[in-house]
Amino acid sequence: MNKQEHDILLEKYLNGTSNLKEEQLLREYSLQYNTFEKDWFSVCEQHNKKRIGLQSKIWQTIEEQENTKHRKKYIFWQAAAVCLLLIGSIWQFKKHKKLENQKLAVLEEAIMVLSENVKSDAPQIIYEDDLIVLYSE
What we know:
Layout: H1 3-15, H2 20-33, H3 38-116, E1 125-128, E2 133-135
Antiparallel strand pairs: 1-2
Helix pairs in contact: 1-2
């Protein structure tokens, strides 16, 4: 690139009509031949580096906030699952306890009937259940 081409590219750059390829050529020429715009391009590069660093920090913050939202959702669903398990366990325990009390009442009734009917010599079935069979003596 000669001085005249440099001046044309510089004019386009200052007017804002240059494209990226022309700006890159102008930047390389300025750095290679120590022209007066060398300092300007150095400042622009530093500004771009800071801007890129700021953009990455912004994205990082956004991602952290999104992750926090997802964690809160998971915590909510985990708490709901624990509550359902707890309620189901209590319900099963009460149901089992009720059945046990019913069987105990039937057994006590059978014992009372047995004590009243002891007069017979042959063993007789007094009460029969899925788990219990009571005979008289």
